[in-house]
Every structure is written in structure tokens, then in C-alpha cells.
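Dear U.,

For the methods section draft, I wanted the exact inputs and outputs in one place so we can describe them consistently. I've listed the two proteins in the order they'll appear in the manuscript figures. Please don't edit the C-alpha cell lines directly; just add comments below if something needs changing.

First protein:
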Amino acid sequence: MSEKKEPSIWEGFKTFLMRGNVVDLAVAVVIGAAFTNIVNSVVKGIINPLVGAIGTKNLDHYSSCLSSTCKGDQGIQILWGSVLGATLSFVITAAVVYFLMVLPMAKYLARVEARRKAKEGAQEVIEVTELEVLKEIRDALVAQRGSGHDRP
């Protein structure tokens, strides 16, 4: 009877770390963090000042009071300005990501895929053409052999 030795915790950990998806995930997190800085810079440096020129940059102070008296922190306040600000920030960030990163990358990948398909299509045409040429050569050789046997 042979006993199967279970891998040690260290070997299991090494196997886990060496999986491709763990490394890919780590790279994605690092790139995502760096990309977040770029997006935040674009939003804070370009988009927010443009929005601020139309209205206000900070919506956190806008609220509505549900109770009869709202002075300072007293009363029931609905802070709809901070919700609106967070929603606008999300929409603006999503737009920046989409129009500056996702859309150009999608167009680039579509062009690369179209070139790849065009190359494959051209290769198939070449292969079909070569096959047709070989068939023609075969038919010509058969015709020559057949005409040579018919002569007296």
C-alpha cells in the first residue's frame, strides 16, 4: 500500500501564488490603482471646474428638513446634495473612463480583429486558388496521357 502524501501548506501556498489568475489579478489591482489616479485627476482638474463654472463644486450643504425646526444638527435633515454630488461624480467618472479608455480600446481591438480576419480570409483564398491550380495540372496531365494512348 502506498500512502499519498498531502502537500504541505507551504507547497499549497506556492501553487496558489503561481496560478496565472492570481498574478493577473495582482497586476489588475496595481494598474487599477494607477488608473484611478489618472481618472481622479481628470475629474478634479478638468470636469469639476467646468461643472463648477455652471453651478457649484460642492453639493454637500444642500438638504431638506423633515421636522418643523432644523437649526444646525437639530431636526431631521435629508442630505440630498451629497447623494446628488456622489451620483454626479460617479457618472462623470464613468464617462471619463468610457470615452477616454474603453471606447478607444474597443475601436483598436476591433481594428486588430478585422485585420486578423482579413489575413485569414486572404490565406483561405490563396489555399483555394492553389488547390484549383493543382486540379488543373492534374486534369492536364490526365488529358495528355489519354491523348497519347489513343495514337496508333
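Second protein (the one for the lower panel):
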Amino acid sequence: MSTFKAPKGTYDLIPPFSAKYLAVREAISAPLRKSGYGYVETPGFEDVNLFARGVGESTDIVSKEMYAFETKGGDKLALRPEGTASVLRAALEASLHKQGNLPVKLWYSGSYYRYERPQKGRYRHFSQVGAEAIGAEDPALDAELIILADEAYRSLGLRNFRILLNSLGDKECRPVYREALQTFLRGLDLDEETLRRAEINPLRVLDDKRSDVQKQLVDAPLLRDYLCDACKAYHEEVRALITAAGVVFEDDPKLVRGLDYYTRTTFEFVHDGLGSQSAVGGGGRYDGLSEMIGGPALPSVGWALGVDRTVLALEAEGVELDIPATTSVFAVAIGEEARRVLFGKVTELRRAGVAADFSFGGKGLKGSMKDANRSGARFTVVAGERDLAEGVVQLKDMESGEQQAVAVDGLVEAVRAKLA
């Protein structure tokens, strides 16, 4: 046994459990792929300032949780703690916004890293699927992304999730609210670090999960009471479009996402079966992020859904995904000549688009049939010297137990016909 273990707060994905993660990623990305979103992949690490500027230096992510390091060449980098800043950086670097057809619609999937206290549903290495629509200010775009996320979750069989919705205003109305909130927070019994945060970005305090802080925030002023007419109209249109699509949501006037770049629409997907780590995904509009990282004004909106949290939500609801067997045909050879012939047939089956595997290691018939059962294959092909002398192999249906002799030369066609 190896003396090495996965780092604390991380996990390995291994079969058969890993198939569930692949199925979740596929289900989340499927609605995006049919809605004009193209795939983007960015490096696992970036310039540390990309996140300090974009995510916000006052956030826990940047100040406490980011894995930052200096390379031998003196570059200061960080493992990506989230995907939006990286995707927007990539889009700007490739000048995608200059090629017309705004918004630029992108989706991505990958691992992200935060130094947090590990617990169920919260890891230091976690997986997300995300989507970003860059370069357009349109409530229909906000609604589209919420609807697509809802569609993805429902396609997996999830039912007990809730969508929380709020508006964070914009540069016109948020400063007035910021001042009112800071005045309120200064009158509370808060620790020094929280008071410092209140001066830098008071909305972060609203996102504080500590019960003693939340108790004092009961009478905090609400941003919805300070929204300008333009933000009110924008938010009402988002709400109307989602409602018309039959997507149920809850207005949450205290919802504040944990990143500094959000403006106007913000939303979160929560599942009450996950305990304290109830958020399974979320996102919102970030109209000023491009300028924060040195780009032009590009109003944008996006979300990220946690694959890890989604898997836990499925388990909480007792939802079993319909994951097909990875192998359709398993070949068992008895004798060296049969090994050569069946190995060739396995290759032919694969080239014909049939998932096929082979009993490796020179095991006997009993051991090889155990391998066939474990593989989950629908059919097993068995052949020995006598079979080959007659020009046939034995094709066994593992569900019904029925077995028939099939001509060696006609095996591929026979299997494809039975699987059709």
C-alpha cells in the first residue's frame, strides 16, 4: 500500500463512483451546448492580481482562502479559486468581444481550489461547471441562464432545490445603500475584523454566516429599498421572464454572493438536504468586472454549479442516475489460439462503435467469467479450440442467460443487431 494519501480536504474520483460525476457534468452542460454556449478551458493557475482585483481583496476567498505562491522566476500566481475571472480574462486576451455576435457565450468545467476548513460539501479542491455570457446588458440573458440551470437540475431528477433571487443595484444606486448600511453596521457589536470589512465592502458583512452576526443584522437596511428606477425595472423584467418560463423562485432581499464583482441580478441555488453547506450553485450579473481587470466595458452575467454539491443533493433525495454500463461485450478466450482470435474481434467491435473488453491476464474460464459479470456487459463472447474448429464463438446474453453459436466472421454484425 502507498504511504501517500490525497491532501486534506481533497478527494479522488475513481470508478464506479466517478461515473456519477461525469453524468452530472454532462447534464449541467447539455442545456448550455444547445443554447449557443461554446466550451472554454483556462489554466489551473493565474496571476494572483486577476483574482485580487476581480473577486475582491476584502473577500474571504482572496484574503484567507486563496492558494497563492511565487514561482522560481518571480511570478506571483494563484490556483484559481473560481472560474469567472479566468474565463473573462481568456475572452479578453483572445479579443472574442471584437468578433461581433455579442454576447460571447461560453461554458467551462474544471477544478477550483480554496483553503477552507474541510467538511461535508466543502472541499479544498472542488469541481464546477460554469457559464458566462459576456458583452450584453439584457434581462433576457440573466433569465436564460437561470432557466438553463433549472433545466439542468431537473433533467438529473432533482426536485427539492430552491432558487433565491435578488438585485444588488448598480453604480448609481448602490453607493447610497452602501452609506446607509455602513451607518447601521457601525452601531453594532462587531469584532475589529468585521468592522474593517464593513468599511471596505459592507455587503460582505451581510454574507457573514456566524449566528451572532446574523442576529444583529435582522433590522439591517435592505438594498431593494434603495434601487434606482432603472435597476427596479431591470429586476422586474428578469422576474417576469423567469415566471413566464414556469421557473419557481424566491425573492431574497438579503442574498449577497461572496464575490465583489456582482451587480444587479444575483441568484443562488440551495438544497435544504445538505445541512449548513446548502448552496449547490449560484451566480449573477457582473457589469464592471471587465474594467476591473483592464478590459473595456463589457456587461456580463454567469453562474457556476458545484458538481460535488449536486452529487450530494442527488444522494440526499435518493435519486439514482441511469448510468449505462461502460462495456457492452466482454470476451473470454480459452486457449492461446482463441486469445488471438477474440482479441482481434474485440478490436473490430470497438472500431464498429461497440464498447468491448477482454479478459486479460491468462485467467481460467471461471475467473474470466467473474470478470465478465463484474464488467456489467450485456453479452459475453466465449470461445475455445473446439468452437474455433467449427468456425463459431458462443454469444451469451448475460441478462437472460441464453447462449447461441455465432459464426466468427459474423460476430460484429450479430452483436450490433442485438444491441440496436
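Candidate sentences for the figure legend, describing the second protein: The CA atoms of residues 192 and 198 lie 10 Å apart. The two ends are 44 Å apart (CA to CA).

Thanks,
Y.
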